């Protein structure tokens, strides 16, 4: 079933294909009275925009967002949300559908081509149709509104921590360098290495996977629920909803399997401010599905794009064996542009849980 | 917000605490006319039941399930589902609440104690209350009904593939040995090693993490959706909804980040039967959110239980610093009993998606 | 699709058939820390209980409710909600399934028998199965918890305002007499008339319809939404979800069609307390989907029960023509016992909207 | 909570205000492969369009719909749905916001002005903002897609059956005349009477209520569920979700309260075709929440618009007493244009239930 709504109280419904006239989303459940302009959203969109370096797709999209509903100019002359659905529209301007003629009838191995065909029997093959990474622009736009709901006290930042076998050195982590390199790397030392490596990948028409890490600081203790409405469960769903993601981790993640109870226990002391002070964060800020007040830490693996120049064996829609080579303009490492997308998904989940928390605990202090 | 319903069309709502009179669930959306008896469910429940070896908690629960609604004896004398909600009840019989007196006012590091208190300001501290692994009995019971919906053609099996640093040897994988060792190990060779290791863990009052792998064979191509209603997204949500899970992987999982596009592409040939034949399964049976017809492969990491005998630094509910030691009866490796739970969650997700697929594609052949 | 959950944030999932071992429900989304005992719920249940006068079914059910989860004894020794799902169980004790032997294979005209069979191809014919009015006991139990969420400032009361062609005289409306007659009539003057009329109906084995009115006072302005999340929309859904209801009205209801804009306008003055004071309430307390602060007024029509002693022409499950007479124990006017059910549904809708309002407007004063 | 999504499997999410740049909706869950063009939708939209006679608002809107996603040209050159979300956009072209200057700070009695302000503290007062009847264009557009899902075998038609105290003569009912008079009247005899009456209403700057009846023929038996997923419950919700609706009836509706069990029973005979043949339709085609195969009949009352020229007493946003007169261009009888809206809501509910039925009963013949 195709149901393109994400979130329970703070909801985003996205629509649009890579090569249609436009993409967009409807953000519903936003509280009233929040200042919101197109510029607020554009800032985030520009970070995800393709064509900003030689390491991402060369498709050129202005990615200009229009707000079609849900805001009004208040008595003070400020544009604010009204509490009604916010419709966002982003025109597609640089489709080159003819690039896709050759793959019209054959399935790219590792791509949704085959399964989409199996399910629907009809598809918009151009640019991956609905499965295109282009859809993530809508997520980033909605995420910008989610950040408004969270307010300035909650800071969400993402970074690329691995490309292929080249992982960052965590001891050099510096949030300040993330914006100043084309990879969203928090480790300045690895940037030249990644540049050389990705240039090779790009020139050979290949592609490579990556790992993104998103951290939310300032999240109050208490968001989430013990089971089913778990904060980490919704983060897992959010990140796995992004195209090409194959694994999601919270805190220690898969390596939690290798820890003893003693090592895994994040011991607690009373801080100088009288508040709980944790001595480590294996939990990634989530205990029993509920935020602990520590930074919420989520990582996800993005597989290499399946659109590569190396010929691969496949079949066509008649079931005949053939070979396929994908031209068009593709990201050699689609994980790079997934960084702002991961941030947006984190913001969407936290905004949703903040509203949920208010609903159930609004009667408490 | 505490919302204890899982699934969209095939839905399970669970309820109950570790030390209340009973636990249970309501399974809603089940198609009518499926044969179903309490025995069908009991078989699965017995696999998860505690106290079956020295490697799981020594709490003794009969875990006998009662079906309170949703079935009727048909004209042929067979008990079948009616299409109305199926209410399942499992009495708690072996609570020892006094074991928990000492942890009433202090928070176990790494446990939901602290966050639960932060959120609700009131809690049932005995046995973890709602956060107890005991709740997973309801999941296993509901999963048994989900298997009925899927029918015999879809086979879901789980196995433990890692305890701490000791991973299985995949070349020795044999589904037939899973039921004949206390670890659900598919690798007979590692069993003695795990026994020695877990005996040490248990005797020292410690605990250790593990990795579970669940595989569904016979899943037809076409279940899922390109975005948001993705099969892998719902699997991530399902597995992360289980207590103590910190990471989820589909197919290659986190290691997809280290692959090139060439390596990751599961090439396709025409099989002898005329059907698509994949040469590898890095995708884990899910491409672009939709099942490909290959086995669906999901793994998840279970952290070590936080209830250990080693004293840990913590605070109490007044914020004072203290130390904590958890007595009571705990699983030294709670990942073991998570195997049938993971199978159940896989069954629930697939049953839900099978119904969704029928809804949207019922007009196709 | 059978989905037996009602409500968005404050949710009730009901289960159970008339002639199974028990009925019950799970109430999810309840805020923590509310005092709640079985006695609190029993009070409401006893008002709906059958067999309390000769004007309702003679089935005798104790309707004793057990709370199986979601509450704990707090530090002050008071039983309070924990914020986790509350499971309620009511045993069925007085089934007489043999009464239904004769209608096993024929369909009662005006009853769900025929459509249920058409849909499911299998049914529990005894006592209407899932379609039995017995299910409404679960609603009343859940409604008692909803009242706790609303608090003492919001008072919800229901009354019977019409039986067949005999409507009450509204000028004699007195809430104090509702509990002291077997009809929940607010008009003491009509009681003897209704007694005589219903005795005739009952003795002749017939049945008759009725109209119930439910009024909620003390509802603050601002609950609901302009569209789709409308308070009146959810009330319409709630009341029409009750068995045998065929029409729902808010305020002026169907007669609003006969009003001019001038007559329909509930003019507003500034009250002595400085608050808005409405001069009339054609709106029934809901304007544009949002509560106005006036009493919320909802009415619904309950059709006569289709289980009557007069033979009616029908067909059997083979399609053959036949006649049917329904024995068993039935309500001559099932609308009477619908009064506490209507109150419960009003309470459920308001509790849900109160939580929704907190979620979206929690950031306002 | 503002949640602007309607439907469970076949879903519509609407957005937009009366005086914003555009309105629109996203239709999600639509099966793939259905032929769909903008023209298909335009036909329905044109029936609802304002300014087509002197009896509706004189606002002139082209109401031209654009399809922004979810369709593709298939191999046969036909534009078909792809199974992904369908985004529809309708530009607003004839706003006259200055008409609303005078009502900026005062609340129209009987209008959402007051409650909207109470809830949100900010509003787009122009043309009623989100509460405007303009939003219903989105519903009609989505309804046109729902009709495609239902196919030509299910015919949904609406009519106006009452304006104020002037009800139609049902013995003269003729569907063929509905399109040929400005009121959607099925009774040609009442048209001159309504014309004279509405001319008076219009000239005096007043307004009047109306009743709409919607009938769906060809609906198969079996859609719906015994409880909560009831077809009539969802119809009640659908119709009450339309602005200005105050009452909803299924079949006999409120007058079912006046019927005996004998009179209410729709007796069944075996028809010449071997199928069940009902002798009457008090049930309105829905028994126990499930369609019976008879025509589904739903009626709803639309209150008079509150925007009238007669001065009414009210207060302003500061709480001061004042008088209000609403200029602007308003429908003297907004019930007229509600006819195609009611049809659309019926189509949306039936399409949703058709998909639900396939989901749960897809395994049956």
TrEMBL record, chains A, B, C, D:
<protein>
    <recommendedName>
        <fullName>Chorismate synthase</fullName>
        <ecNumber>4.2.3.5</ecNumber>
    </recommendedName>
</protein>
<feature type="binding site">
    <location>
        <position position="288"/>
    </location>
    <ligand>
        <name>FMN</name>
    </ligand>
</feature>
<keyword id="KW-0285">Flavoprotein</keyword>
<comment type="pathway">
    <text>Metabolic intermediate biosynthesis; chorismate biosynthesis; chorismate from D-erythrose 4-phosphate and phosphoenolpyruvate: step 7/7.</text>
</comment>
<keyword id="KW-0274">FAD</keyword>
<dbReference type="InterPro" id="IPR035904">
    <property type="entry name" value="Chorismate_synth_AroC_sf"/>
</dbReference>
<dbReference type="GO" id="GO:0005829">
    <property type="term" value="C:cytosol"/>
</dbReference>
<dbReference type="GO" id="GO:0008652">
    <property type="term" value="P:amino acid biosynthetic process"/>
</dbReference>
<dbReference type="InterPro" id="IPR000453">
    <property type="entry name" value="Chorismate_synth"/>
</dbReference>
<keyword id="KW-0028">Amino-acid biosynthesis</keyword>
<comment type="similarity">
    <text>Belongs to the chorismate synthase family.</text>
</comment>
<keyword id="KW-0521">NADP</keyword>
<feature type="binding site">
    <location>
        <position position="48"/>
    </location>
    <ligand>
        <name>NADP(+)</name>
    </ligand>
</feature>
<feature type="binding site">
    <location>
        <position position="329"/>
    </location>
    <ligand>
        <name>FMN</name>
    </ligand>
</feature>
<dbReference type="GO" id="GO:0009423">
    <property type="term" value="P:chorismate biosynthetic process"/>
</dbReference>
<dbReference type="GO" id="GO:0010181">
    <property type="term" value="F:FMN binding"/>
</dbReference>
<dbReference type="GO" id="GO:0004107">
    <property type="term" value="F:chorismate synthase activity"/>
</dbReference>
<feature type="binding site">
    <location>
        <begin position="303"/>
        <end position="307"/>
    </location>
    <ligand>
        <name>FMN</name>
    </ligand>
</feature>
<comment type="subunit">
    <text>Homotetramer.</text>
</comment>
<dbReference type="Pfam" id="PF01264">
    <property type="entry name" value="Chorismate_synt"/>
</dbReference>
<keyword id="KW-0456">Lyase</keyword>
<comment type="function">
    <text>This reaction introduces a second double bond into the aromatic ring system.</text>
</comment>
<dbReference type="InterPro" id="IPR020541">
    <property type="entry name" value="Chorismate_synthase_CS"/>
</dbReference>
<feature type="binding site">
    <location>
        <begin position="130"/>
        <end position="132"/>
    </location>
    <ligand>
        <name>FMN</name>
    </ligand>
</feature>
<feature type="binding site">
    <location>
        <begin position="243"/>
        <end position="244"/>
    </location>
    <ligand>
        <name>FMN</name>
    </ligand>
</feature>
<keyword id="KW-0057">Aromatic amino acid biosynthesis</keyword>
<keyword id="KW-0288">FMN</keyword>
<feature type="binding site">
    <location>
        <position position="54"/>
    </location>
    <ligand>
        <name>NADP(+)</name>
    </ligand>
</feature>
<dbReference type="GO" id="GO:0009073">
    <property type="term" value="P:aromatic amino acid family biosynthetic process"/>
</dbReference>
């Amino acid at each position: 079933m195709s149901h393109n709504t994400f979130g329970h109280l703070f909801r985003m419904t996205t629509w649009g294909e890579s090569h249609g006239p436009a993409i967009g989303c409807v953000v519903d459940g936003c509280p009233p009275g929040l200042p919101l302009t197109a510029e607020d959203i554009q800032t985030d969109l520009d970070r995800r925009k393709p064509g900003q370096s030689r390491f991402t797709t060369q498709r050129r999209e202005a990615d200009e967002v229009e707000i079609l509903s849900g805001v009004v100019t208040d008595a003070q002359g400020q544009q604010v949300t009204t509490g009604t659905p916010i419709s966002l529209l982003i025109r597609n301007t640089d489709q080159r559908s003819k690039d896709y003629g050759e793959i019209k009838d054959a399935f790219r191995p590792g791509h949704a081509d085959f399964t989409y065909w199996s399910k629907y029997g009809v598809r918009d093959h151009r640019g991956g149709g609905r499965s295109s990474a282009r859809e993530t622009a809508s997520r980033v736009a909605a995420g910008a509104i989610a950040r408004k709901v969270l307010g300035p006290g909650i800071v969400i930042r993402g970074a690329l921590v691995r490309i292929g076998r080249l992982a960052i050195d965590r001891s050099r982590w510096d949030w300040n360098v993330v914006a100043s390199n084309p990879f969203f790397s928090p480790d300045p030392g690895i940037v030249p290495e990644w540049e050389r490596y990705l240039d090779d990948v790009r020139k050979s028409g290949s592609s490579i996977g990556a790992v993104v890490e998103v951290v939310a600081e300032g999240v109050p203790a208490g968001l989430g629920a013990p089971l089913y409405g778990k904060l980490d469960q919704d983060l897992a769903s959010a990140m796995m909803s992004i195209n090409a993601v194959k694994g999601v981790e919270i805190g220690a993640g898969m390596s939690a399997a290798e820890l003893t109870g003693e090592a895994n226990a994040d011991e607690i002391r009373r801080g100088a401010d009288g508040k709980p002070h944790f001595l480590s964060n294996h939990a990634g800020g989530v205990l029993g599905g509920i935020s602990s007040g520590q930074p919420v830490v989520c990582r996800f693996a993005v597989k290499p794009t399946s659109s590569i120049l190396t010929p691969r064996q496949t079949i066509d829609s008649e079931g005949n064996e053939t070979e396929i080579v994908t031209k068009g303009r593709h990201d050699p490492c689609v994980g790079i542009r997934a960084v702002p997308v991961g941030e947006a998904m984190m913001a969407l989940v936290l905004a949703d849980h903040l509203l949920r928390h208010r609903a159930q605990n609004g009667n408490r202090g």
